[in-house]
Amino acid sequence: MDITRSSPAPVRVVAVPPEPEPADLTVLPEPIAVEPLQPLEPLPTVTASAITATTSATTTTSATATDVRGRRRRNRPRDLLALLRPGQWVKNLAVVPLALLDTHPWGTTAFLRTGWAVLGFTLASALVYVVNDLADRERDRLHPAKRHRPIASGRVSAAAAGALTGVLALSLIGWAVAGPAWQWWPTALYLALSLAYSQGLKHVPLVDAFIVATGFVLRLVQGSLLVGARLSEWLALCVFSLCLMLALGKRRHEMTAAGRAHRPALRGYTLAFLDHLVVLVAVLTAVSYVLYLRDDAALAAGASLVTLLSAPCAVFGLARYLQLLLVEEGGGNPVHVLFRDRATLVNAALWAVLVALALLLPQASA
Fold it and tell me: Where are the alpha helices (DSSP H) in the chain?
């Protein structure tokens, strides 16, 4: 055997698939089921009644829009009046007539001049409200409550508010010219301070609240000038501290209700700081009121018991406001808080009766 010769190559086996069976041509294929065509729905017929109904709906929509515009026009005088904030005029009625406490005997002239002073400060404060709302309209739109004000909500345009500002300014000039000469300077100083407040001082912490409180002292000074009464320093301090307490309480409520973003001056306050300030100013209010009763009040010699009884009423009123502010989280609108709270109203009525008795005793004994 010759081993040098190579062995033959192995045979490769390839698997061939089987051929398919031929189709049976004698069997027919199954028929394909074809669904019958559905008849097309007829197009809707446009009738005259349908056209009439569509026209009526369009007319109704137009009438509704016109009605809304008409209601807006009819509400414009009401919105302009709301822009003047008549609910805040009670501040002038509460502060300006305090000058009558040091005026005896009372007469028709004193009451007429007091009313004239109230009118002047009502015009001045209304002018300040309109100017402030014009300046703050963009910021008020971000506040949950102030966004409903007439200018911020768009119910009163800036042009209409500007025209109203001109009318108020002319009326105030007429008031100053028709009144006693050179006795309108407290109102003019109030307007100057309010203008500085609107232009930037309202963003300075503490200064904003002090300017507001000073405006109420100027109300008292205006009433004293027109009535011709001597201004008591203790009474002026009492009015200043009381109004400062209300202004600080309002800022505390704004901080808890809407945060610090709405009023830039709130960045200089904290709740603890405001709480301390409010209590401090409340104590100053009570002390200055008692000192006014002891030193400057024009009361009868035998009215010491009556005045002594009025002091607890004043302290209770302060305590009640602190309770509404710190416990019940009120104080956003001091006028609403003080004049809608039953306990405050009863206490104020009792205080007014005691003070009236102390003032009228000299005339009764005569």
Answer: 48-83, 90-95, 108-135, 137-140, 158-178, 185-199, 207-227, 233-258, 271-295, 304-322, 334-340, 342-365
